[in-house]
Structure formats: structure tokens, C-alpha cells
Amino acid sequence: MCPRNSLAALPWFHEALPRLDSPPTTAYPRPIMYKHRVIDEPGRRLLRMTVNDSAIEIAVRPHKTLLEVLREDLFLTGTKHGCELGECGTCAILVDGEPVLSCLVLAIACEGKEIRTIEGMADGPELHPLQTTFADLGAAQCGYCTPGFLLTAQALLDENPDPTRQEIKNALAGNLCRCTGYLKIYEAVELAAKRMRNGSDSEAKR
């Protein structure tokens, strides 16, 4: 191998170095939160669905899971890869309001469906009460499993505004966490339910 000072003497060496005053050569895609269409290619199928209240049209490969399309094609990386066997709940999202393990669902099976990921949980700058209580009570530590817990808990509270502790445990039984020991998560869901029933955080804290 040539030492670095020997490389510096070569005429092409400095040309190969990026200039500090030049724009970056790689354009990284930004998260897509609007209507997105990819030109159809051989082997792809056009998929139409609604993601976080935005109409989406995208050409996908038939073998790709919904998890892969969300992360790799739509750049919605809040949905996490976990076991990819349907056993950990890390990839949970909402499909037509119901919790679904996105690692087990083919994207093309979601034609016409309404998809909700963690990126669409907040109402603009206003966090969902569950997001607030998870932060207030320390229910999220490493945070990797948190999106799945939040969306699954949201589906529970949408259906049952006043769940018991056992009903919360049953609803979240498919979501695994290796940090919190679950108690703080259950308490956060209970507190969010209370705040939502009372109509505002300030009322519930009184």
C-alpha cells in the first residue's frame, strides 16, 4: 500500500477529494407525506392507498411487505424492523383503524386501505395524548418498540375509551419491550385514557 503522502503527489488524488465549498453529490430523499407516484416498471404493480391521510400511488414489487414499502419506498422509517416473524409487534401499524403487523402483510394486499403510521399519529404540532403520557411517565426508553405500542394503544382507546388494566394488557400482549418492564406503559395508557375522557390534559391533571 502507498502511504498517504505518496498518494498526495499523484495528479488525480486532489481531483478525487470533494471540495468543501461544493454542494453534496448525493441527494437524500426526504420523508414523503404527500401524494407520491413512481413510474411503473416491469415487474411492479401500481398500488393505491391512503397513508396518514394522504393519497398515495406507488409502483411496488409484488413480493414486498407493507413494512418494506413504508420504510424503503415511502421513507416512513418510524415503523421499525423487528423479528419479521410476527412475534414482537415492533412493526405494528393501523390498517383501517386496526392494528396490523406490517412485516406479515404484502403491500399489494392493502389496495384501497387507509394506513396510519407513527408519523401520522400527532395532529400537526400537537402530540396525541398517548405520546404525551409515554414521555411524561418514561414509558419509552430505547424507543425502538414505542411506535408499535403507541399505535396499538391508540386502536384500543378508539374502541374502548375506559379500558381496565387487564384490557390494556390483553391489547398490548403482542408487543414486546425489553427496557421498561411494561408497568410504565400500562400506566401511560391509563393516564392517556383519563386525559382523553376529560377532554384536555389540564383538566385531567387537576
Q: What this model shows, in words?
A:
The protein is built from eight helices and five strands. The chain folds into two domains: 45-120, Ubiquitin-like (UB roll), CATH 3.10.20; 129-199, DNA polymerase, domain 1 (Orthogonal Bundle), CATH 1.10.150. It has a five-stranded mixed beta sheet, sandwiched between helices. Strand 3 and strand 4 (98-101) form a beta hairpin. The longest helix has 16 residues, at 183-198. It has 206 residues and is an alpha+beta fold.
Write the layout of secondary structure elements.
Elements: H1 4-8, H2 11-16, E1 45-51, E2 54-60, H3 66-73, E3 92-95, E4 98-101, E5 114-116, H4 129-137, H5 146-159, H6 165-171, H7 183-198, H8 201-205
Parallel strand pairs: 1-5
Antiparallel strand pairs: 1-2, 3-4, 3-5
The major pleated sheet works out as: 5 strands, mixed
Per DSSP E runs of 2 or more residues, the count of β-strands stands at 5
Following the backbone from N to C, one meets helices and strands in this order, namely HHEEHEEEHHHHH
Quaternary organisation:
single chain
CATH architecture of the largest domain: Roll
CATH class of the largest domain: Alpha Beta
Strand order of the largest sheet: 2-1-5-3-4
Share in β-strands: 5-15%
Structural class: alpha+beta
- From the N-terminal CA to the C-terminal CA, the straight-line distance is 71 Å
- Range of helix content: 25-40%
CATH topology of the largest domain: Ubiquitin-like (UB roll)
Q: Regions with pLDDT < 50 over 5+ consecutive residues?
A: 1-37, 201-206
Compute the CA-based radius of gyration: 22 Å
What is the general shape?
globular
Enumerate how many helices there are, as a single number: 8
As for the number of domains, it is 2
Overall pLDDT score: 83
